[in-house]
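Weekly modeling sync, notes
Attendees: AB, CL, MP (scribe)

Item 1: holo prediction request
CL wants a bound-state model with L-homoserine before deciding which constructs to order. AB pointed out that an apo prediction alone won't tell us much about the pocket. Agreed to run with the ligand included and paste results into these notes for async review.

Input as submitted:
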Amino acid sequence: MIKIAVMGHGVVGSGVVEVLLKNGSKIAQKAGQPVEIKKILDIRKFPDSPLAERFTDNFEDIVNDSEIEIVVETIGGLKPAYDFVKRCLLAGKSVVTSNKELVAEKGDELLKIAREKNLNFLFEASVGGGIPILRPLDQCLAANQVYEIAGILNGTTNFVLTKMIRDGVPFEDALELAQKNGYAERDPSADIQGHDVCRKICILASLAFGKHVYPRQVHTEGIQNITLDDVKYASAIGGVIKLIGRASKREDGRLDCIVAPMIIPETSQLADVNDVFNGILVRGDAIGDVVFYGQGAGKLPTASAVVADIIDEAKHISRPKILNWEPGEEGYVADYLQNPVSVMLRFKCSDASAVQSLVEGQLGKCERVVVKNAPQDELALVTPTVEEYKIHQAVGLLAGAKLVSFIRIAEL
Ligand code: HSE
């Protein structure tokens, strides 16, 4: 029998408890021993829970309990999760977490402590919800030089964009529905503004390329400014808009890493990733392209990944699994403005031909995009592929034209 504690009884934590209780005998078989939840940490009371008497609001009850060998953290955020997880590791307990902010900000430090203490620190659920991605990336693709990862990594925004694209549902209504379904973060701006995707691409890039990528190093944009008109223009060039987290290795050893809404071809495998589903494309020199697909958010899919980590840790309690990367460094992620990119620009202007000539004078030939019933004063252009700073410079030189939309185009 192995005893564990679960910290946090929100959407994911309660799902973990539910799965452990429901599938107890199957889990015991896989783990080689029964897994008993000895304590659950939450400041709230849950009198109707079958484990009501095991709740505590005092972290010390967990960290000081020498019988507890594995601690599951599903509190989310850095405070107090970082302090709690660090103390658990220092106290000799292996940790499982679903907390992407924690891993993206502090993963290198926590992995180091785990390594030094001969413990496990696993976080499969922190990226892609229920999709197995970190373990396959680390183990099954170990023979490859992975050179690019690009993914739809946020269920909430993918759900919102899908509703906008398929049903013409306004942004706010779609977001409210996503929140009701329990997909969104406590503060949905982390989803909408791209921070959640940023954390996840940082974790993927750190694991794939071996050095920590910190969220502050990654240029991040969200979907808050995407409109139904943008959706229409994307469709006119055979594309769909998806919020993409992308990381690739440069020849100089640094990384390109960015989070932004991008127009991807309708024929891309990622274009068919809809609703709350996530899709992650990994490109490796031996495997070619491989896509991981599944539910990227939600109580039970995420709990499924957490419980799999608990089983893995129970099986390897005195035999740590090696999941590792080195601390990051300034300058490791290259300036995104130096990256070659093609962009769909949309302007309000009184003289479309003059504006097009001016842009083309700076950047070279652009493709004009026309949609039915567009207002007279609207101009949409697809730029050639040039370093991104040149596009900003060209737009900055225009007088008499208001930029209303700037969406990168990605050949994924
Ligand atoms: N808010 C996140 C999402 C939850 O919508 O994908 C899973 O990380």
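Recorded for review: The chain has three domains: 2-129+299-315, 134-295, 336-409.
Action items: CL to compare against the apo run; MP to circulate these notes.
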